[in-house]
# Entry
Amino acid sequence: MTTSTTMVDVAFEVRCGCLSHDYGYALFRALADELDWLEEDPGAGVHPLHGTASTEGSLCLGKRARLTLRLPATRVEQALALAGSHLDLGSGLDIGPGRLRELVPFATVYSHFVCTGSADELEFLAHAAALLKAAGLPDTMIAGKAHTAHTPGGEVHGFSLLLHGLTASQSLAVQESGLGEGRKIGCGIFIPHKSVVAVGTA
# Structure
């Protein structure tokens, strides 16, 4: 199936020992210092980093860790200029080469942290359903683990969220637009759920 989107991911190799577990806002601010358009571009978002939690509460990144930005396709060349940058986070984060990744339509997509303004799971699901319906998307979803992040504006609360039963166009739509608040700090960005085959391929 051939699809086209206005949004893409740019994934960078990174070298970093450990970061604060609650790194989201600090990472965004450090990136915004390097990319002067990141804060103002409403479509730009920062994926959560994946690593291993230490007993001290830090997040330790392995050699396969990637810093991934979801961006309008028109920003790719500007974003690739991040390669070679050093961010003063945790033990220091060095950014290596970047690689373009196009969005792929999967019937099931997942976001590690979706924020709709509520820390109550039932309210969260109701808000998420309303946002999905307003966007013309089905509200077939499963909420998971609760999460909290700290920002200068206060605590941000939410849950992991899995959306399923999506058509190819619906899958791409929610990956492009995201859901809820906090896109700059890793919230509401959906990725394909790896246990489900791509829409239209089976």
The chain has two domains: 7-102, 109-192. The mean pLDDT is 91.
